[in-house]
Design goal:
It is a single chain. By secondary structure, the chain is an alpha+beta fold. It folds into 2 domains: 69 residues; 239 residues, TolB, C-terminal domain (Neuraminidase, 6 Propeller), CATH 2.120.10.30. It is built from 3 helices and 22 strands. About 16% of the residues have low confidence.
């Protein structure tokens, strides 16, 4: 081999190898890329100034519900998601809530309003209100009231979680240094207090709202600055991510596709922001006769490892370098 060519062999092969790695990495990123958060619409109706909960309709496309918190009329607003326009109102009569902080819809189409706001942690009259999902148009409804109590006494609660599949209900306390998940009785009574029970699961600090996926497998929680995804069967955290800046982030709701969720904020002309979401793939459980294989690690390990393809790229890099060295050595000996 020409000595000049031999000197260029190793650098040339290394450059070619790096180009292959770079192109493969960029292709992998492009395949896994997701659209970022986008402002879908703004709730510009002057009556909505303190939106404090959000629920996606289970009966109507492009429809959601919100409600203002304390100091406002007990009116549920039906919102066209794509435009932010109010297309219906439902006024709760007779048993009227005081400080509404969350709103959710169960699998039967019943709409639930959580009158649980209690910044001073002194209220003894907190309750849930239930009414059929109203849809569009203007209505007045005498909602059914279900009083609730907490095991440790009064607490500030801004999150109501309802499993659409099972109807199970729970709340999350809002604490400065952390919250707690509390389960409500499976059958609520209107004539007596329904005592929530602690499940022994610590929640993040300052949780302002939550939502459950349509299949009941996942739960989303949010604080003023972050969103948290949980496995709703074990209540173990899966991952968290910062949310786009908002004046006072108060609401979150799974969209029906389960491929995205919406967040909202207090304040006039507040935006509904759509954030893409990729849920974990269901694990494949090997049959008893299958050859044992190394099982996946924890969620933390999986997140750190990425897709698995990245690891194979680096194996190719190492193998390629070794191959280049072997070729160069053979070429030198042949010369």
């Amino acid at each position: 081999m020409n000595p000049r060519h031999r000197r260029l062999l190793i650098p040339g092969l290394l450059i070619a190898l790096l180009v292959v790695v770079l192109v493969s990495s960029l292709a992998r990123r492009a395949d896994g890329a997701e659209a970022g958060p986008e402002i879908v619409s703004r709730m510009s109706d002057p009556r909505i100034t303190e939106s404090s909960g959000l629920a996606i309709s289970v009966k109507h496309d492009d429809l959601a519900y919100t409600i203002n918190d304390s100091g406002n009329e007990p009116i549920i607003f039906a919102i066209k998601v794509s435009t932010g326009a109010v297309v219906g109102t439902t006024t709760i009569t007779e048993n009227t809530p005081i400080d509404t902080e969350a709103i959710a819809i169960d699998g039967d189409g019943e709409l639930w309003v959580a009158d649980t706001g209690d910044n001073q942690e002194r209220r003894t009259d907190v309750a849930l209100y239930a009414l059929p999902e109203p849809g569009t148009g203007d209505h007045s409804v005498a909602a059914e009231r279900y009083p609730i109590t907490y095991p440790g006494g009064p607490a500030d609660v801004e999150t109501l979680l309802i499993n659409p599949r099972t109807g199970a209900k729970g709340v999350v306390t809002k604490g400065l240094f952390g919250g707690e998940l509390l389960a409500l009785p499976s059958k609520l009574a209107a004539d007596r207090a329904n005592e929530a029970k602690a499940l022994g699961h610590d929640m993040p600090a300052m949780i302002t709202d939550g939502s459950m996926s349509a299949d009941g497998r996942y739960a989303l929680l949010r604080s003023y600055s972050d969103a948290y995804l949980y496995d709703a069967t074990t209540w173990k955290p899966i991952r968290s991510a910062p949310t786009p800046a908002q004046a006072q982030g108060e609401s979150i709701a799974f969209e029906r596709s389960q491929k995205s969720y919406l967040i909202g904020s207090e304040g006039a002309n507040s935006a509904l922001i759509r954030i893409p979401l990729t849920l974990p793939k269901a694990e494949v459980v090997p049959t008893p006769t299958a050859k044992p294989t190394k099982q996946a690690g924890s969620t933390k390990d999986a997140n750190r490892a990425g897709s698995g393809f990245a690891g194979s790229i680096w194996l190719w890099v190492v193998g390629g370098v070794a191959l280049v060295a072997a070729i160069a050595s053979a070429a030198s000996r042949r010369t």
